[in-house]
Amino acid sequence: MSGQSEHIVVIGAGAAGLMAARKLARAGRTVTILEARERCGGRILPLPASEFGYPADAGAEFVPGEAPVTRGLLREAGLSVQEIEGTQWSFDGTRLSREDRHDPDQAELHDVLGALQDDLTVADFLRRHFAGPDYDRLRHSIGRMVEGYDAADPERASTLALREEWMDGGRHTQARIVGGYGALIDFLAGECRGLGVTFRFGCAVSAIEETGGPLAVRCAGGDLHGCDRAVLTVPLPLLRDIALPESARAKAASAGDIGFGSVIKILLRFARPWWRERNEDLADMTFLLSDQSIPVWWTRHPDQHPVLTGWFGGPRTAELATLDRHGLIEAGLDSLGAIFGMSRDDIARDLVATAATNWLHDPFARGAYSWATPRTREAQAILACADGPVLFSGEALYRGASWARWRRRWRAGWRRRK
Fold this sequence. Notes:
Elements: E1 7-11, H1 15-26, E2 30-35, H2 49-52, E3 62-64, H3 68-77, E4 81-83, E5 87-91, E6 96-98, H4 106-115, H5 122-129, H6 136-150, H7 159-166, E7 174-177, H8 181-194, E8 198-201, E9 205-210, E10 215-219, E11 224-227, E12 229-232, H9 246-252, E13 258-260, E14 263-270, H10 274-278, E15 285-289, E16 296-298, E17 307-313, H11 325-340, H12 344-348, E18 351-358, E19 370-372, H13 376-384, E20 390-392, H14 402-405, H15 408-416
Helix pairs in contact: 1-8, 6-15
């Protein structure tokens, strides 16, 4: 981009939008951010510390492995992270047990993956190389892993995109930001304001028009913003709702080759950590996996906050699509009851605060995050091409290694648990 007087409109005030705006403003551009919500952060959603006892996150929570961009920003902001420690447990329908790190099929899986030349979907990979009853456990584990932690559809997800992670030993760490992700968003928003970036909230963009001169960005409420260029950082499903110039429309169509997953997240704060009282071996439990309606739970360990967070990702979240916030919390309590052999009422008796979000139902997200299909790399290259007045950015276009690495340890657990 050239010209110091150039006016850029950034659409979306999530992390990607704020970072783009900051970089453009530092380069001397005039920048306006249009955000459909009445807040910054997008899929980063802080919850009140007064309710949960700490700055909880209803959206993004973990710092992914090496995460050089995120960790660099944290250093700039003077924020620190707390590495996650502890043990992972599973419930097989009968009993709780620590994860068994021995996987009898791992060596064969690695051999087949190492020899794979052409990409194919995970489902096709399993049907081709691991058919038959001897591999029932392996197919189930990988399918649930892809759905649960990638929020992906095994019938569409790329095998080559996941190969490096599957063949890794799960040595990369995870961490949380002390103060939550909201503290990082506050830092980025403050930086933008200090650089003169203008924020317009409640502006859901409906169209970008190219008339031979400046662009016209239209909002659903009727506002019109003129600019020289526009940077779209909205989640992929929202691109379908924005009328674009022909050249940008052709690029946006390639987004269909990038997967986008659904996630349900539930937070339950209790008066006391009853799970540790019932079983002292759970004192250092971090993650708890099962086949219940809400299949993944984690604690705040090593923090002592008596909070359990439930997680359900992937296409099977459609099974709970009709549930409202209250219904999701009830599903969470039922799942915990089945795991710990308790009634829903007994568990609910100690509840202090609750939160539940089905990100598919969020009108300005319609899901959680992207995942790769066999055609995703090509689609990313098309969308990231910096030509024309309408540009695309966001987490779905990130092609660095650390995007994938953060889930390695989690995936190792999914492989081992069945």
